[in-house]
Design a protein that fits this description.
Oligomer: single chain
Radius of gyration: 24 Å
Number of strands: 7
Distance between the termini: 36 Å
Largest sheet: 7 strands, parallel
CATH class of the largest domain: Alpha Beta
Order of helices and strands: HHHEHEEHEEHEHHEHHHH
CATH superfamily of the largest domain: P-loop containing nucleotide triphosphate hydrolases
Number of helices: 12
Helix content: 40-55%
């Protein structure tokens, strides 16, 4: 065993023993993709599975950071340990987190059982990178009860948060028609809990009503269609039957219907109700068996993502060995070959390696 391997083994042991400095060093190694980070994550993986991971997203200015701060305080008051990852926009110069220095956990300063880390989105759609997923794994292995992932809030691309979180909360500002339009465009599909923050502002009631209507239509897309005259079921009306089945499903508790809560993060109003809504979704996941399926799906997607990244790196090296992409593009431009032929030639060694003779 090399000295580096021994050092990493010591790092893992100290992390699992509850040393926050070791946790910080491990996440730094993960974020920087330093040598041996994959082995480090592999060593931590058997110790994961105990944390409740909550993703919190929404447009900039919705008050995510303040709400995360107050939510962490609520969990601490309940005796739970908390890990927070704040995914910030990447610096175009260094790749690091532009807002990494900001103090966003004012209510939890000095509390060693709230571990906060700001990480760079590294240009990944949705503000989440593989490094963030691995950092969540480190916090989970460390033994944090709750892991909160606050994303940059880049609109529909935030769906990537689903791959990391068990429960997704989407924040919306009152009276922000653009936010509601954004939700209609697709982010509505990922929310398990919707939060109208800054609920003391004008327009909060209307925003709540719009969200509840959108959720109702999502759960029952035909709800706004006519079912007979003035909604009265006619004999043989198949639509009425469909609506009745949907209603029966809701009564039986089949599936999860997203909830809408109102908060004023600056004062802490509504934060307890928010925590209760998150807890209710967690209980649903566990009791229904959906958590097991969701975890399996997440791991399957992670494997695919890693395979794509690793295969791409192998193919890039093969491109370089053949003179680089520019030379190949020039050959295509000169009609000496074509893009499909080039792709086949580059992939062939990898295909032979994988498929073998059989």
């Amino acid at each position: 065993m090399s000295r580096a391997e021994e050092a990493d083994g010591d790092l893992v042991a100290r992390l699992l023993d509850g040393e926050h400095r070791a946790l910080a060093r491990a996440i730094t190694k993960i974020e920087n993709r330093s040598r041996g980070y994959r082995e480090l994550v592999s060593a931590l993986h058997p110790h994961t599975g105990g944390a409740d991971v909550v993703g919190i997203t929404g447009s900039p200015g919705a008050g995510k950071s303040t709400l995360v701060d107050k939510l962490a305080r609520t969990y601490r008051d309940a005796g739970l340990t908390v890990g927070v990852i704040g995914v910030d926009p990447s610096s175009p110069f260094t790749g690091g987190a532009v807002l990494g220095d900001r103090i966003r956990m004012a209510s939890n300063v000095g509390d060693m059982d709230v571990f906060f880390r700001s990480m760079s989105a590294r240009g990944t759609l949705g503000g989440l990178s593989t490094a963030t997923t691995d950092a969540v794994r480190a916090l989970d292995a460390f033994g944090k009860d709750k892991v909160l992932v606050e994303t940059v809030g880049a609109g529909q691309n935030e769906v990537d948060v689903v791959r990391t979180a068990d429960t997704v909360a989407v924040l919306v500002q009152p009276g922000s028609g653009d936010d509601v339009q954004m939700l209609k465009a697709g982010i509505l599909e990922i929310g398990d809990v919707f939060v109208v923050n800054k609920a003391d502002m004008d327009g909060a009631d209307r925003t709540v009503s719009e969200l509840e209507e959108m959720i109702h239509l999502r759960e029952n897309p035909r709800a706004n269609l006519d079912a007979g005259h003035h909604g009265v079921a006619e004999p043989g009306d198949t639509q009425a039957g469909t609506d009745a089945e949907a209603a029966a499903d809701e009564e039986d508790g089949d599936g999860w219907t997203p909830t809408v809560v109102e908060t004023v993060a600056t004062s802490g109003e509504g934060v307890d109700a928010f925590a209760e809504a998150l807890s209710a979704h967690r209980e649903y996941l566990e009791s229904s068996g959906a958590l097991v399926e969701k975890t399996r799906t997440r791991h399957a997607e992670e494997i695919r993502q890693l395979l794509r990244a690793d295969a791409a790196a192998v193919l890039e090296r093969e491109l370089d060995r053949r003179g680089g992409i520019d030379a190949l593009a020039e050959a295509v431009s000169e009609r000496e070959t074509d893009p499909y032929a080039v792709a086949d030639e580059i992939v062939e060694p990898l295909r032979e390696c994988v498929e073998g003779d059989g």
